[in-house]
Amino acid sequence: MESYSRRWFLGVGATTLISAAGLTACGSGSGSGGSGSGSGTITAMVYGDDAVKIQVKAAERFNASAAARRTGGKVKLEKVPASDYPAKLRTAMGSPNAPDVFFNWGGGSIKAYKEANQLVDLTDVIESDPVLKDGFLPSVLDSGALDGRRYGIPMRGMQPVILFYNKTIFDEHKLQPPTTWDQLLDINAKLKKANITPFALGGADTWTELMWLEYLVDRIGGPEVFERIKNGDASGWGDPAVLKAAETVKQLIDDGAFGKGFSSVSYNNGGAPAVFARGKAAMHLMGSWEYSTQLGKFPDFAKKHLGWCAFPRYEGGSGDIRNVVGNPTNYWSVNARTSNRDAAIAFLKDCASEEYAKDLIDNGDIPTTSNAAKLLDASPNPEFARFQYEMVQQAPAFTLSWDQAVDPSWQSPMLTEINKLFVGKSSPAQFVSALKGLK
């Protein structure tokens, strides 16, 4: 399974959204402009990958429903090829043919549309509707928010970042999955003594390095540190937790935790998963899609040797070990100029249904709905599915991947500074200073 959120944002998405801040609110795809109740077709623009079949079924289900008859509206999906999606969405949102509802990644991916007053604030709608309020895991609903207001309804599977490990290597060396940072360092020392690289890392793709800083900042300083940064306060990079996380990363690198050639290993071309599956590295910090990646490329390893656990707590840190980072899900947002808001919101409510959750599970995804736990036995790997679901269900906070959460104008320079830190071209102090200077 491809990580649809990850593959998009690190491609063309960031650059195409930067100029969206200049957009003005235009009429909706239904042609009549305005807001509130109306009639006719509402257009839903969606990312056209393999998983779009779930949204196709949802549209068919809604169009045959009493809700469609009551609101006088039907949904027409506009499927856009994956690589074209960000640019086409930006263009559409600045035209008279803007979609009524559109797929997005929350966070920075919709910030420009919010600032242009193009989004329906769904906070009060969710709070007043039991189906929406109680239908989703709270940490996932919150992750789609900006400045504490909700603009998205979860509509795809969860993708938390997980610490994967090779159960066979751990058994052979009498190791247990780490629950504290000191335990992790002790495991590293034992693995290196056995000539095994502790962690696979596809450092040729900077987003793989980002995951380490995301978790360390959370575990050291708590989710509030990045929340401040996400909301546009660049001085938040000066929080002591950011410097401590950068220093911890440097210690790991200097200590050989990732081996010597990690900066030339790619995740995108399968290099890092292969290093892990072939026993050359004992652990791999990666999004939950690592399971399906291994199942596709190294099925024997995935079925017999692959283990998983939470990222360990950091002694003295204020972050809860139950906190999660990664891609909570993808979201539907509603254009503020839709001519049939009632139909749009009624369509979004289908995402909380059991039928929708079953369709996600059949596709190998883990739903973010509160009703999903009882359905997970139908997943391709129920044990892994339940681990993920309970991980997110119990998370006090689920921090959206930094590259998707920050303002798009910060994304590229932030990733550049992260890469410089990992390859030794920048010290932790220089890393912090550079990020504090982002405008």
Q: Portion of residues in helices? A: 40-55%
Structural class, by secondary structure, is: alpha/beta
Shape: globular
Number of domains: 2
CATH domain topology of the largest domain: D-Maltodextrin-Binding Protein, domain 2
What CATH architecture of the largest domain do you see? 3-Layer(aba) Sandwich
Radius of gyration: 22 Å
Largest sheet: 6 strands, mixed
Mean pLDDT: 90
Task: Summarize the structure in words.
By secondary structure, the chain is of the alpha/beta class. It has two domains: 4-158 and 329-384, D-Maltodextrin-Binding Protein, domain 2 (3-Layer(aba) Sandwich), CATH 3.40.190; 160-325 and 407-436, D-Maltodextrin-Binding Protein, domain 2, CATH 3.40.190. 46% of the residues lie in helices and 14% in strands. The protein has 22 helices and 13 strands. It has helices at 4-18, 52-63, 66-71, 85-93, 108-115, 123-128, 130-133, 138-143, 167-172, 181-193, 206-221, 224-230, 240-254, 271-277, 289-297, 299-304, 341-349, 354-362, 382-393, 402-405, 408-422, 428-436; strands at 40-48, 73-81, 101-104, 145-146, 149-150, 153-154, 159-166, 197-200, 281-287, 306-309, 324-327, 331-334, 398-400. Strands 7, 8, 9, 10, 11 and 13 form a six-stranded mixed beta sheet that branches. A hairpin with a 2-residue loop joins strand 4 (145-146) and strand 5.
